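Folded chain entry
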Amino acid sequence: MSSVKVAVRVRPFNNREIGRQAKCVISMKDKTTAIQHPKQSKDVKAFNFDYSYWSHTNEQDPNFAGQSKVYQDIGEEMLQHAFEGYNVCIFAYGQTGAGKSYTMMGKPEPRDQQGIIPQLCEELFDKIKTQESKDLQFSVEVSYMEIYCERVRDLLNPKNKGNLRVREHPLLGPYVEDLSKLAVTSFNEINTLMDEGNKARTVAATNMNETSSRSHAVFTVVFTQRRHDEMTDLSTEKVAKISLVDLAGSERANATGAKGDRLKEGANINKSLTTLGKVIHALAESSQSGDMKKIIKSQSGSKKRKKSDFIPYRDSVLTWLLRENLGGNSKTAMIAALSPADINYEETLSTLRYADRAKQIVCKAVVNEDPNARLIRELKEEVMRLKELLKSEGLADLVESPASPSDGGQRIMTPRNEDAMEQLRASEKLIAELNETWEEKLKKTELVKQEREAALAELGVALDGTGTTIGVCSPKNTPHLVNLNEDPLMSECLLYYIKPGIMKVGSTHADIILSGPHIRDHHCTFESREKNGEIIVTVTPEKSATIFVNGKTVEGPLLLKTGHRVILGKNHVFRFNHPEQARQEREKTPSTETPGTVEAQLGEPVDWTFAQMELLEKQGIDMKLEMEKRLLAMEEQYRREKEEADQLLEQQRLDYESKLQALQSQVERASLLSGCTTPEYSTDDEQGESEPSWTEKEYQLAQWAFIKWRYHQFTSLRDDLWGNAIFLKEANAISVELKKKVQFQFVLLTDTMYSPLPPDLMPPDVASDQPYPRTIVAVEVHDLKNGATHYWTLDKLRQRLELMREMYDSTAEMTTTSAADCPVESLTGGDPFYDRFPWFRLVGRAFVYLSNLLYPVGIVHRVAVVSEKGDVRGWLRVAVQHVTDDDAPDCTGGVCQTGTARIAFNQEELQKKIDAENEAEANIPSGEELRIVEGQDDEEASEASAAAAAAAAAGGDGQKTPAEEEGEEEDSWVQFMKEHPHLKLGTTFTFRVTLLQASGIPPEYADVFCQFNFLHRHDEAFSTEPLKNTGKGPPLGFYHVQNISVVVTKSFIEYIRSQPLVFEVFGHYQQHPLHMQAKEEVIMQRRMPRTFPQSLPLAKPVPSPRHGRVPTTPNLNMTHCSYDLLGWWEICELGPSGEYIAAVVDHSDEKPCQGVFMLHQGIQRRIRVTLVHEPGQDVVWKGVKEVVIGRIRNKLEVKGPDGEVSALSLNICSQGYLYPPHDLRVFYQFEAAWDSSLHNSKLLNRVTPYREKVYMTVSAYIELDNCAQPACITKDLCLTIHSRDARLSQPRSLRSLFGSGYYRSPDSNRVSSVYELSLKHSSPEGSPGVQRRRRRVLDTSTTYVRGEENLAGWRPRGDSLIFEHQWELEKLTRLEQVERVRHLLLLREKMGIVSGEEGKEIRWILGEGDDDTVDRQITLLDKCLKLWSMEPLQLYVEAFLLTNLMKDTDVDDDDDDDPAGMIRSVSTPVLSSTLVENSPQHSPAKSPVPPPPLGAADSEGPLPEGVAVPVLPPLPPDSTDDNPDYQALYIPAVEEIRVSPVVSRKGYLNFLEEKTSGWIKRWVVVRRPYVYMYNNEKDPVERGLINLATAQVEYSEDQQAMLKTPNTFSVCTKHRGFLLQTLGDKDVHDWLYAINPLLAGTIRSKLARRAAYLRI
């Protein structure tokens, strides 16, 4: 007795598991296999087996178990048992795709990939060769079957096409009737049979396995040993049955995606495996408690069998056939194949439990000695018994001749007699097989082989002498179709056999499946039947199917003859072959004549060309005539194009000749003028240039301009980026090819307080007195291997690139052996990709100002730790206070006292640094802004310079002498000493700096310490001890105290007045994959341009067929003004009344184009566009130049280039201004006639199918006054075409059906769009700014370098890097200013400054000692505070009071009785005052509304009542009579603004507007940066908008009390103001937060402080 040996084997990840990023949950150690729950790491289950094979990794793993290891442990042992005479069984179990077939069969090549079955068979014959002798003979028989859907199929005999029966014999047990057992004599023969069986096995593809086994395969080897004893002259035999089973895998339908037949197969597989599990479970329980059950059964004396003792072998064919192998006479081994992925956890755990049960089964194997003799004897006894039984029943005649009884047709057989007869025949058949000699078995095997070859030859498969397939030939008897192809090599490669019966042809669910546009689902049928001993084939087409036979259309059943050409559809061409008919025709034809083939009869080969020509001829198409017509048309086209080209060439020649003549005349005229110049004139010019007569102020202005333009650097930075991009790209390519984990990218570094440049990056040509911070282009090196970042200069990059090239060349030249002996670093002198990196990395810097030391006030600062990129990385708490001699060192509370340090302030050194920083401001005579935008017009720059010089000259009369200035400075110092007696010159001043805590430091910095120093004393720094940082718990407590003693000098006082202490925080950076910083993925906050989802692409203008494409390149000139345009787009159709009515628009759901126009087919249409914007004299619409429609498509995305053919220019019908009552906005409307048939588009000429949309792009080119080119407004429109008689209405959604109502306003049949119109200044063509912007720089970023394709889309940074860096510098500047202001406010709070002392105390903090400068700064600060404190609501109140006291002269008399007159426009006073203050060129006396077009009064009729006719806009100030040539031209730029999908707030608000009878209730939706206004909640069209980016929001409770109107706040834009009121008290702050979160936070903070004060 022996138990079943169980082994488990885990495979590597497959592609499906790798794609889903699966994790391994299997671990093995010795014979123990453990599985871990993927979601509960502590849930680990362990199992012990006989063998645990780890095949998850590769062969380099020492624990890796390959195919040979598995065979050595299991296969060799089982083969040895077979030689001993035992029955042997090896079967593999597991889920689908777990590797069962690979373990059992493996791969034929290479040999180390072969599985257990081929290795066992090969070693079997190797041992036979070594052990075979005269006395010992061996014989091997094999059989191969599969169990498919509970049916047994023979895989070796082609004649056994049906299902075989499984019988059970009392002596032999279960066996398969008529299963082929073939004798083999060598491994090659058994390998060939194995290969044939594998090809015939049923496999299919599922989602989990491409070659999934859909059946259980049983490969049986019957191994017989015959030994002859010469002494006794007796022969004995040992027969071993080796069963090698490859089970199909268990599977889940949802995981494999099985449907149809695959689902049925999976159900049968799971059924058989479930039965196998029940059998194993029952056998395990029986083996464990077998003895105990016998004892209990003997004591009870009951013969009743318990249910648990029953083993369900017969529930499945698989378990029935494996009954002896599972619990009977067999040595059995089981291999469980496992999947390591966590996504297959449940299936893997089930397999492990399955295997754990199987190892408890105990088999009773015995040696099979002389089984044939014993079986023959027992079978003969059984035959005799059955014959006696039949004779007793009176069936002796059937016993004598059971195959053909004389009266078998009339004899009545009982069921008992039938069973006896069947058993008798089966026993006699077994006796015949057992008595069969070895030679007879070999003959039978050869006969089966010949029958298989004959069957394959009948199917058209040619075999060689060894049985190997060598090709395809024509079948000998079966009618068939062969394909004909345009390529002769592809012809006759496909054969379709027409089997007896009916064969269907179609695209789906057919016997012959064809594909193509003209192949129907059921195309035709081929019927093969026998008539008069001859097989005939008839083709019958289905209804409306296209079939041609010999070029003629087939409409009914047609008898096919051999050689007929059959065309199915348009593309599938076949030739019908009937071997019998061809043979008969050859026999009828005499041998002396030409054979009667189709080719001989037709005189040419029957190929694809012949079939096509025959089709054209029979269908009445003359190819020769068609080709002649085509040739004539091409000749005519060539002649016409040649004439056009000749005319164009002649015209160009004439143009060039005229240009040459003009240039020649210019040269002659210039030479004449140059000859008239006298020498005296040139000499005077040279003398005048050598000695300019400049004043001192002009010299200062020239010096300032020279310094500014000398250090103007952004253009040179752009040149460096573009010129060195090729070196950066090459370095990255070499890094990728050499597998260096290093990445290179451009970066801009500026020498600022937060990011000082190290000495190795500072350019050598930078002067020490440079007034502006220096910006350089550097290379940021990301060392992903060590988690470090370095910065290289461009020179260092080029030097390292040379070394990289040498390393690359050396690596390519070295061989494999030499590379192992000689490292690459030894050849190049080190690795050029890596640099050393410090242990501690800079976290950030913080600045603490010391102006509180001017007064004996101690302050505890909380300053931000800012990184070099401007990100806040933590906070520091620092205390700065004055220390007297009486103060004792503080050692309580854990504070560490470190003693007193003496610092000396050198007056010259500090003054030199301060002067260098302030040199730029000192050199500007008029205090102009330092930053000059690159590309500004020279005229504007010269005007600014002239104004500055004039201001300087005007103030030069009151200059003071140096002696007077020195005296005033001494007096100011004396006054300062009186006010600050603790800071006397020459005395010792001591102050204390206490570094208390650090908080918010990122946890990836482990050991953190801080050091601080003065700006000009970098060599003297005070440092703390490192502290462990975990990122959790309380802040890091440094508690470092440093006393600093200084001798008071003027330089020290100047330092503490304006300069800070620098605190630097360092930390040890831990490289960890969970940290984003370890991957160097620094996400930079940047000012990104407007971007939108890919589903909503911005519409590009359609090029005009008449005037070409409007330039769309970005204009870099200054913007004069900008307006927000609201556009309403309508498509009008001609109605029954003769008027154009707006087509219905579907606004349901979220449409990409804001709505879908529902149009009727074949009706005249017009495109109507209305533009709405705020009034202004800069935007005056002159007229519509052209309206173009193009890009007709059925998808929103635009693919392919634009063409003039696809664009259609429309005729303008009407255009002009509209003047709706009670609305001061500008309305400009135009209409254009649209005939959709002129597009010649199928999408517009037909009815749009269901669920399909038609998209088109409309562009309107509109001219404006004072603009050099028209403005282009573009919109994508979505529409559907319906039949002419269709009744269209707006679709209603479920929300509208169950809601409060449905909006049916006629003006909702439109779609809206928002645009931003910017008017930019135009520059003269010859100006230096334009020439500088047009200067071409060699862009090397697009130049190809070797290995660029490996960079996976990486590109070097370009111009965007400069803009991002400018924003970073602005952010760092703001952070510095915030720290300075925070310190000032904290000092004011500590000192308790009142308003009377404020100016005096601020003077010494802001000023540098110059009274005029300080007074000017204080005055400016007061103005700013007044402006900030000004409430726009106050202006509303003033306007409200004025409108009640005074009446305008242009108001009608009817307004006196109107109560609305008490509340006139609250926006007009604000608008006029704003224009007066900020825009001097606008006259407040003139109306900003554009004029009506000429003839408007005649064409449009009188204006509505109450609307005044606006006057013409005034000309700009410069366009006077003195300057008649003035022409202010701007360049319009229109950008479409998509509506943001994020809604911050929506609801109803009350608006106070002009010419209304009170508040107007509107539906408002806040989608930042715009506020959209609607008539009500159901209104789908935007009626107005407010741009929050240029608006100011104010809220004041005092003004609400004056107006007696609660819950109000004001919104002021550049053009008007709005007074808004919420419906409830609680909604005020919510609306304010949605519109202006910063203001809402400020109000809440004030309210909280007020509440706290009231509680006190």
Q: What stands out?
A: Residues 623-675 form the longest helix (53 residues). The chain has 42 helices and 63 strands.
